[in-house]
Amino acid sequence: MTSAKVDKGQQGGRDAVDAPAGEGYQRGLGARQIQMIAIGGAIGTGLFLGAGKAIDRAGPSLILAYAIAGLVIFFIMRALGELLMYRPVSGSFSEYAREFIGPFFGFVTGWTYWLFWVVTGITEVTAAATYMTYWWDIPQWLSALVFTFILYGANLISVKLFGELEFWFSMVKVTAILGMILICAGVLTIGFSDAGDTATVSNLWNDGGFFPEGIGGTLMTLQIVMFAFLAVELVGVTAGESKDPRTVLPKAINTVPWRIAVFYVGALIMILSVVPWSTFKPGVSPFVAAFQEMGLGIGAAIVNFVVLTAALSSCNSGMYSTGRMLRDLALNGQGPKVFTKLTRTGLPFTGTTFSAALMLVGVWINYQWPGDAFNYVVSFATISGMWAWIMILVCQIRYRAKADRGELPQSSFKAPGAPFTSWFALAFIGLVIVMMAVDKDARISLYCAPVWALLLGVSYLVLRARNPESAAFSKR
């Protein structure tokens, strides 16, 4: 951390939370857009599609897994919020790692988070292509190709339009889940539809108990559960383009508990009460399957459209964040200078284009392995996304220690219970990684991670040899 930045931070007040003036982005994201991005970021493929496999593995105990994991996510988001109120920047995770741990970790975090969103984009476009087969018998790779080009075009207009699209994408998802909860409540209380005679809350424990596959089965779903929450941290990337980060970001982060309680725990309680857990199968959206079991065919079609929207929304967010992360790396001398360029409307055109081109790999995956494409990429997306969470927690622990010693200004949005909650969250993430090592389907990501780490390590050594300034804590 440069001395100039320390002096500025020690002044406190607004200076401690202003984004760097040299970022060059336009602050085009308003309060309602940030709020819906925060809400919608946690509602995507992991819930709508991945939950089917998790229910098959754990039964009703999946509800408990989501609740505990949701608590951990809240700890992570409050740790991020504390850092954001100290210094909100668009490349937040990479910037914080660079400042509080070292330039190498900033390099690794920036490129890993970029890779996470590229892989997640592939995951989401794969899911979208899967949903299309509900209506038409068309090749998955063709749908994936079309969607990739459409979303790429949408990201080249303006950040304000991106925010508006995400607002409405999220509104569709939120409305659909609330509607699903109300319909299930009607089935349970009034008894209409084909499932009316068998719908009962006792379905949560009648078919083999609340832990039908044992505690081990529940633990094995943690990788899928954590994948469902990936992207909640996206609100941190929007910090540099938010109109009023001091007010908007804390409000968005504080919505985490109730949106997890409603959209994950509440929705699953209602669905598994109406339809026995053994009915759901891997690869099929539990929302679509529930409507089909209730005999509401049109409802299943509507939900399939909604989950299609959710997947496209997440992929759209991925294209947004990849360009920003590449530009942050480039501004700090840890990426090609070409990524620093912005369009007249403040968009990182080159970084977004490069990332979208790599997302076309998803088209090839869908062509080669249309049945297994989703499972192949989910596990790798999870391990790379969790690295960002680990960096957030470690940086918050170090920041809090420095702030308590008076070396840095105190944040106006302290994480409650920290640093103990941050250490607990780190331990939980460690448990998830152990479960991924045990799961043969998820183990591939742990094989890929060392290869990626070696590639980054060699790249950093070459970069530092050619450009010693890249080893500085920050160049902005």
Biggest β-sheet, characterized?
none
Count of β-strands = 0
Q: Helix count, per DSSP?
A: 22
End-to-end gap:
10 Å
**Percent helix among the residues?**
55-70%
**Average pLDDT value?**
80
The arrangement of helices and strands along the chain is HHHHHHHHHHHHHHHHHHHHHH
**CA-based gyration radius:** 22 Å
In percent, how much strand structure appears in the residues? under 5%
Counting helices, strands and paired strands, the structural category is mainly alpha
Q: Flag low-confidence runs.
A: 1-22
Shape, please? globular
What do you see in this structure?
With 476 residues, the protein is mostly helical. The protein is 69% helix and 0% strand. The protein has helices spanning 3-10, 31-40, 45-48, 50-58, 62-86, 92-100, 103-132, 140-154, 159-189, 203-206, 214-219, 222-229, 234-237, 245-253, 256-274, 286-293, 297-331, 349-359, 361-368, 373-404, 420-438, 443-466. The chain is globular, with a radius of gyration of 22 Å. Mean pLDDT is 80; it is low at 1-22.
Short précis:
By secondary structure, the chain is mostly helical. The protein contains 22 helices and no strands.
Keywords:
476 residues, single chain, globular, disordered N terminus, mainly alpha
SSE topology sketch:
Elements lengths: L2 H8 L20 H10 L4 H4 L1 H9 L3 H25 L5 H9 L2 H30 L7 H15 L4 H31 L13 H4 L7 H6 L2 H8 L4 H4 L7 H9 L2 H19 L11 H8 L3 H35 L17 H11 L1 H8 L4 H32 L15 H19 L4 H24 L10
Helix pairs in contact: 2-9, 2-14, 5-12, 5-14, 5-15, 5-20, 5-21, 6-7, 6-20, 7-8, 7-17, 7-18, 7-19, 7-20, 7-22, 8-17, 8-19, 9-15, 9-17, 12-20, 16-17, 17-18, 20-21, 20-22
